[in-house]
Amino acid sequence: MYFREIKENKKQYLSLLLLADEQEDMIDRYIDRGTMYVLDDDGVKCECVVTDEGEGILEIKNIATEPQYQGKGYANAMIDFICRKYKGDFSVLQVGTGDSPLTVPFYEKCGFVRSHTVKNFFTDNYDHPIYECGVLLTDMVYLRKNLLTK
After folding, report:
1. Would strands 57-65 and 92-98 be described as parallel, antiparallel, or unpaired?
2. Could you report the per-residue pLDDT of 134-145, keeping only the tens digit for each?
3. How far is 53 from 89, CA to CA, in rounded Å?
4. What does the alpha-carbon distance between residue 126 and residue 44 come to, in Å, rounded to a whole number?
5. Distance between CA 149 and CA 132 in Å, rounded?
6. pTM exceeds 0.90
């Protein structure tokens, strides 16, 4: 298992990117300014795009694992890699997600804590309703993890 930075042709991973952010024009807002990594374990299993949001904040804009490999620790390994790689360069790793019973507990298990909410983010920015685990996503929930310790 190894991690590789993708510097060109990031859209070759569009099918994977769309698992985490199902509207391509939203992905277009961050893909070129973000740094993309893939986790390769006898083939690409997971991808992640992070952006420098200023003031010591690194943000996960997109993280997704191929469906047949979900639940096997790949996303957790990717987050651990990002934390190790950027520790010392950033003070906070943050992620914005829908208030879903699937994703919020995952991030909390990875050591993130709720930070703030952006009301109506999904309804204001997406051209269709987004559901996860049967829940209509409306607000963006931000979670943060301190990169200065541990």
Report:
1. parallel
2. 999 999 999 999
3. 12
4. 28
5. 32
6. yes
